[in-house]
UniProtKB/TrEMBL annotation:
Keywords: ATP-binding, Nucleotide-binding, Translocase, Transport. InterPro entries: AAA+_ATPase (IPR003593), ABC_transporter-like_ATP-bd (IPR003439), ABC_transporter-like_CS (IPR017871), P-loop_NTPase (IPR027417), PstB-like (IPR005670). GO terms for molecular function: ATP binding; ATP hydrolysis activity; phosphate transmembrane transporter activity. One of its GO terms (cellular component) is membrane. GO terms for biological process: phosphate ion transmembrane transport. SUPFAM superfamilies: P-loop containing nucleoside triphosphate hydrolases (SSF52540). The keyword Disulfide bond does not apply. This is Phosphate transport system ATP-binding protein.
C-alpha cells in the first residue's frame, strides 16, 4: 500500500471515522487479573482522558487498544475492541493494520536519537510497511510536523538529529512520527509527565487541534490537564487487590463538577 491509498483528512460531521469502543474488556498477566469488564466508548472528534491511581490498569488498557498487550508473553485478554464497529482482534485483521490505524505516544519521548528529524517522521511509515516517493515524503514531513506544532521550529534544520531537540520538541516529533501513517486514533500514555509546563501547554494545544481528525485517548495524572484537554473522562480504580475497573465515565464537566460516585469526587479533588 502507498500513502495515497490512505484515508484523507476527515471533515466535521456526525459520521466521523475513528470511533473506538471497548466491550467487556478484561485482562490478565498470567493468573493476575488486572482489568475487569471495562466498557468504554471513545468517540471520534473527542479527547477521552483515562484517570485514576497508579496500578489500576490504565496503561494496560491503552496497550490493549492497539494490540500491544498481546506482545507480553504472559498477557491474555477477553472482550472486544471495536474501531468503527469492527473488532481489531478479529482473526482476519492483521496486527500491522491495527498499529497503522491506532498510533501510540509514550511518557518518555522516544525519537530515534541519531536519525534526522526528517527521517524520524518518515520512519513512521516504514514501521508499518508503507512506501512513499521523495516528493510525497517531503509533503508528508511538512504536514505532520505542522500538525504536531513543530514545523516552524525545525523547518531549517530537518537534517539535524532528533536527539538534539529539547524534550518537548522530541515529544512533538514523536507525535509527528505517529501521524505519518494518518492514524484514526492516537493513544497517549502520560505524554507530558516528563515535560516542563511550557512544553506541556504546547502538546495540549496540539491535541486540541488534532482531535478534529484523530480520536485521542490520553492517560494523565494531572487533573488540571484532564479538565483542560478532555471532552470525556473515565475514572479507573483497583481496590484492595481487585482488578482495575471503571468507577464512572462521562462528559469531563460532569466527572469534575457533579460526579455520581464519592470515590470519583475524592480522586478528582486530590483526596487520594
Ligand atoms: P497504571 O497505568 O494505571 O499505573 P498498569 O496498567 O501499568 O497501571 O498496571 C496494572 C497492573 O498490571 C499492575 O498491578 C501492574 O503491576 C501489572 N502489570 C503491568 N504490566 C505488567 C507486565 N508486563 N507483567 C506483569 N504485570 C504487569
Ligand atoms: Mg501507567
Amino acid at each position: 500500500m502507498t500513502i495515497d491509498a490512505l484515508p484523507v483528512a476527515f471533515t466535521e460531521g456526525s459520521t466521523l471515522p475513528g470511533g473506538l469502543e471497548a466491550r467487556a474488556v478484561s485482562a490478565w498477566f498470567g493468573e493476575h487479573k488486572v482489568l475487569d469488564r471495562v466498557w468504554l466508548q471513545m468517540p471520534a472528534g473527542r479527547v477521552t482522558a483515562l484517570i485514576g491511581p497508579s496500578g489500576c490498569g490504565k496503561s494496560t488498557f491503552l496497550r490493549i487498544l492497539n494490540r500491544m498487550h498481546e506482545l507480553v508473553g504472559s498477557a491474555s485478554l477477553a472482550g472486544e475492541v471495536l474501531l468503527d464497529g469492527e473488532d481489531i482482534y478479529a482473526a482476519r485483521r492483521r496486527l500491522t493494520d491495527a498499529r497503522r490505524q491506532i498510533g501510540m505516544v509514550f511518557q518518555k519521548p522516544n525519537p530515534f536519537p541519531a536519525m534526522s528529524i526528517y527521517d524520524n517522521v518518515v520512519a513512521g511509515l516504514k514501521l508499518t510497511g508503507l512506501r512513499a516517493g521523495r516528493d510525497q515524503k517531503d509533503g508528508l514531513v511538512e504536514e505532520c510536523l505542522t500538525k504536531a506544532g513543530l514545523w516552524k521550529e525545525v523547518k531549517d534544520r530537518l537534517r539535524k538529529p532528533g536527539g538534539a531537540l529539547s524534550g518537548g520538541q522530541q515529544q512533538r516529533l514523536c507525535i509527528a512520527r505517529s501521524l505519518a501513517v494518518r492514524p484514526r486514533v492516537l493513544l497517549m500514555d502520560e505524554p507530558c509527565s516528563a515535560l516542563d509546563p511550557t512544553s506541556t501547554r504546547r502538546i495540549e494545544e496540539t491535541m486540541a487541534e488534532l482531535k478534529a481528525e484523530v480520536t485521542i485517548v490520553i492517560v494523565t495524572h494531572n487533573m488540571q490537564q484532564a479538565a483542560r484537554v478532555s471532552d470525556r473522562c473515565a475514572f479507573f480504580l483497583a481496590e484492595q487487590g481487585t482488578p482495575g475497573f471503571i468507577v464512572e465515565h462521562g462528559p469531563t464537566t460532569e466527572i469534575f463538577d457533579a460526579p455520581r460516585d464519592s470515590r470519583t469526587a475524592d480522586y478528582v479533588n486530590g483526596r487520594f
